[in-house]
Amino acid sequence: MAPGLVSQRHSESFPSVNSRPNVILPRREGRRAELPPGGGTRPRLAPTRPVLPSPAPLGAGAYSWSRSGPGRGGGAGSSRVPRGVPGPAMAAADSSLSDNPRTFSRRPSAQASRQAKATKRKHQASSEAPPAKRRNETSCLPAKKTSVKETQRTFKGNTQKTFSPKKHSVSPSDRNQEERPCIKTSSLFKNNPDIPELHRPVVKQVQEKVFTSAAFHELGLHPHLISTINTVLKMSSMTSVQKQSIPVLLEGRDALVRSQTGSGKTLAYCIPVVQSLQAMKSKIQVYYCYPYFTKKNRLRKVT
Ligand SMILES: Nc1ncnc2c1ncn2[C@@H]1O[C@H](COP(=O)(O)OP(=O)(O)OP(=O)(O)O)[C@@H](O)[C@H]1O
């Protein structure tokens, strides 16, 4: 059977359904396009439910009915698609649907409808009024004013009650501190009434001579140390702090030295230290022993 024939017979058997324009057009444009040029009433849109051909009379008891098909439900427009071996009528119907899409209107899926709703919401949000939350906020403004007034009125009566605990919590000593000028005092001295006053004299700047004419070899140092000072460090004369401190330290006495930065204090204590180390005689003598354990295995002094 030819596909054209099937569709023709279907239209004959269901004239009430097929008499409508069985086309779905895009929402706005489609409706505008369907309007007659001179105005008038809007024609009725096509049903979204797809119209499929009725079951072909091919062995009526040989196939089952599909409930998951696009035409769920009964009625004249319902389309129960037979499940099973597709007969020639089904094939013809399929081919006719695929060839002529205008005769088939597919029902939009749930996902498509959800997307359409989402886009609609988006357009509304962008073009029109602010979102519902903001609208609520703006609409609440007058109510807010009244509420503020009300609260002010209520506070007039209860001002002392509400804020009195904070005032009463302040101790008299704290109040005195608040009255004082803003001077921060450490907690160490806060409760100490007797802070001693230190009467310090004004420090006068001392101008001292840095270098002296005294030489290092006058101190009686080890010749190696003197040669090192002269050749490696390239120093010939002592500074004033060195001249005063080195003899005292060489005697083995303690000294507290205070002098200007860069006046040579480091060498003032290092030269006596090195001198005392060089003057030390080792109490440990070097011995060697035989590599094997015999009677001769005893320490022998290295000569
Ligand atoms: N007798 C000297 N003759 C020439 N140069 C010296 C002499 N003694 C120290 N200097 C040089 O003076 C510089 C400062 O010396 P040093 O660092 O010992 O001073 P300082 O008083 O220890 O300084 P700081 O107070 O910073 O520790 C160093 O470069 C050092 O080499």
TrEMBL record:
Cross-referenced InterPro entries: DEAD/DEAH_box_helicase_dom, P-loop_NTPase, RNA_helicase_DEAD_Q_motif
One Pfam family matching this protein: DEAD
Known EC number: 3.6.4.13
Motif Q motif, chain ranges: 214-243
PROSITE patterns registered for this protein in UniProt: Q_MOTIF
Family, as annotated: Belongs to the DEAD box helicase family.
This protein's domain notes: The Q motif is unique to and characteristic of the DEAD box family of RNA helicases and controls ATP binding and hydrolysis.
Name of the molecule in the record: ATP-dependent RNA helicase
Organism: Macaca nemestrina (Pig-tailed macaque)
Lineage, highest ranks first: Eukaryota, Metazoa, Chordata, Craniata, Vertebrata
